[in-house]
Amino acid sequence: MTINYKFPEGFWWGSATSATQIEGAAEEGAKGKNIWDYWYEVEPNRFFEDVGPKETSDFYHRYQEDIQLMKEIGHNTYRMSISWSRLIPGGRGEVNPEAVAFYNKVIDELLAKDIEPFVNLFHFDMPLELQEEGGWESRAVVDAFVDYAKEAFRLFGDRVKKWFTFNEPIVPVEGGYLYDFHYPNVVDAKRATQVAYHTAIASAKAVEAFREFEIKEGKIGIVLNLTPSYPRSNNPADLRASRIADLFFNRSFLDPAVLGEYPQELINILEEHGQLPVTEKGDKELLKQNTVDLLGVNYYQPRRVKAKEHLPNPYSPFMPEWFFDHYEMPGRKMNVYRGWEIYEKGIYDIMMNLKENYGNIESFVSENGMGVQDEHRFLKDGEIQDDYRIEFISEHLKWLHKAIEEGCNAKGYHMWTFMDNWSWSNAYKNRYGFVSVDVKTKERTLKKSAHWFKQVSNQNGF
Ligand code: BGP
């Protein structure tokens, strides 16, 4: 078979998951509550078909079978997250021995199968007690996070070499403080800015702590969802709108994490509108000195932007949307289930931007995937025929391949996600996995894409 797209030697093939979305056992193993457990208790109807995070895909009990499947489908790497409220119930203080035993078993099992674990510390799951103290609005919570990070490095750093401070830190800002799709459902841009700032500080402090551990061959990174911003036209107003959207939603985390400082234009905008966060002495140096080694790029969709047609009412509360409007590009390709545009070249544009403007930092695609509703419709002879997913992945991989040929420092590709899982407020609505999970029996079955991916990984290309 001819391989048209061959990837560099040692390329990382795998998938990503997060603790809350797969572990289940939310009330077992002495786990504390996080905001998702709590939000489901008080507002179950905010979740698709009223399904909460209690059981999810039951990885907690089935991790051996799952890791065996990862092996079977060609994973050489795998990203997971630690549940903060499982490792340290309540968010502060003593570690939970049952959690330590669980994560040790998972890590050891992965290593025994030659799958390198990539471990992320925070994937949207704030311990409830810390949220009640103000969550990321509180500087004391930043310190609690750093203590948690140190415990994780101390407990697992002898075996885990790739660490990540945060997954998509902009999402809790958008969901929890701007657009009302995560708890605590606040809509207030000033508070959102404070949350974003503290998260960036927490990440830099965790990087600083990581350096002190001197983990042999260890690398620390952050995972960002980058949504490249494309202007409707080249007229100055559209270009400006697109640049500002990029500042708010990409560069607000990318610049401090990789370059160690915020873009001046973003500071100016926030200052002009009285939105600057409260900072502390030494923060600037902290950011400057603690940039990441490695960048995970989650890519799902682009952002299409045009100039604001009507000036914002100066009496309405400040929002990023004061500066731009979204528009739907005519003829765009869509994932109709999720309502997201599919634009494969976006991955290439992101990588070229990292090459040109971010020192060609070592990176990888840490999430990319396609959620599909009612996927059992595609069941034939006991297997889901997800040709659309194979097409989705391979079209993105072609662009990634091109970026690598042009000198980008991209080292791998992780699909979202390993198996169908529970997703935030959408619960089990959209299925993303290589492995199908029966929500009731928890039975696992490989989809067609899983077999395809195994081949890709084995041949290091397709
Ligand atoms: C990313 C998250 C994942 C995952 C994925 C798919 O933003 O890191 O946790 O959920 O998106 O999105 P969704 O589940 O909302 O369809």
Radius of gyration: 21 Å
Q: Going across the major beta sheet, what is the strand order?
A: 1-2-3-4-5-7-12-16
SS element count, helices: 15
- Give the domain tally: 1
Shape: globular
> How widely separated are the two ends?
9 Å
Biggest pleated sheet: 8 strands, parallel, barrel
Bound molecules: 6-O-phosphono-beta-D-galactopyranose
Determine the fraction of residues in helical runs and give it as a percent range.
Answer: 40-55%
CATH superfamily: Glycosidases
Give the second-level CATH assignment, the architecture. Answer: Alpha-Beta Barrel
How confident overall, as mean pLDDT?
97
Instruction: Report the β-strand fraction as a percent range.
Output: 15-25%
Structural class: alpha/beta
Count the beta strands. Answer: 19
